[in-house]
Automatic annotation (TrEMBL):
GO molecular-function terms, A-Z: acyltransferase activity, transferring groups other than amino-acyl groups
InterPro entries (UniProt xref): Acyl_CoA_acyltransferase, GNAT_dom
Organism expressing this protein natively: Acidipropionibacterium acidipropionici
N-acetyltransferase domain mapped to chain residues: 14-181
Pfam families: Acetyltransf_3 (PF13302)
Coiled coil: none
Stored PANTHER family: BLL6696 PROTEIN, N-ACETYLTRANSFERASE DOMAIN-CONTAINING PROTEIN
Record protein name field: Amino acid acetyltransferase
SUPFAM superfamilies per UniProt: Acyl-CoA N-acyltransferases (Nat)
């Protein structure tokens, strides 16, 4: 497999460790923090009731070699914050996407997401030699679109009627990318964002 499914990445604020069924209780508690987006129709965050099935689906994708899923753990107190993944893996370019990401409500804005993205993109660019790292979100998720653009990703385009929400509504996918030559500047921005949250 191109990427070791046992990969663990440790940063300043978080550790990304291989997702497993042992994370179930912590992830259920995390998604209940602030009734995270699973109650909002335009997000795809799993509900507490569907968390076990969501983990199982991601582990099946890992075993099939199409996804590397991580649990995000805060270093300060070992609290589980959420999930993120590498997916759409193509070692021939090489390139990959980062996605299926969600973070407990109380940790949002704390620098942990920036640290997580720093770890994921740094490993992809500097260890895997990726020429492109992609991120995508739904057109209706303006908060996510703004966050992706702050990371330094550039808009590639919009795939119309690409996804269907749980309530049946169709939505567009907004596709962004960061290229290898753009990474040094983006890395400085991410490091600065993480540093703002250090004591």
């Amino acid at each position: 497999m191109w990427i070791d499914p046992g990969l663990t990445l440790s940063g300043t604020l978080v550790r990304l460790e291989p997702l497993s069924t042992a994370h179930l209780d912590g992830l259920v508690e995390a998604v209940r923090d602030g009734d995270l987006g699973h109650r909002l129709w335009w997000t795809s965050t799993p509900s507490p009731e569907s968390m076990a099935a969501d983990i199982a689906t991601k582990l099946e994708a890992r075993d099939a070699g199409t996804m590397i899923p991580f649990a995000c753990v805060r270093l300060a107190d070992s609290q589980i914050l959420g999930v993120t993944t590498y997916y759409d893996l193509d070692p021939r370019v090489p390139r990959l996407e980062i996605g299926y990401t969600w973070t407990r409500a109380s940790a949002q804005g704390s620098g942990t997401n920036a640290d997580s993205k720093l770890l994921l993109i740094e490993y992809a660019m500097e260890q895997l030699g990726c020429q492109r790292v992609g991120l995508r979100t739904k057109w209706t998720n303006q908060q996510s679109r703004d966050a992706i653009e702050r990371l330094g990703f550039r808009l590639d385009g919009v795939l119309r009627a690409y996804a269907r929400h749980a309530n049946g509504a169709l939505d567009d996918a907004v596709c962004y990318s960061l290229l290898a030559h753009e990474w040094p500047a983006a890395k400085l921005r991410l490091r600065d964002r993480v540093a703002r949250h250090l004591p």
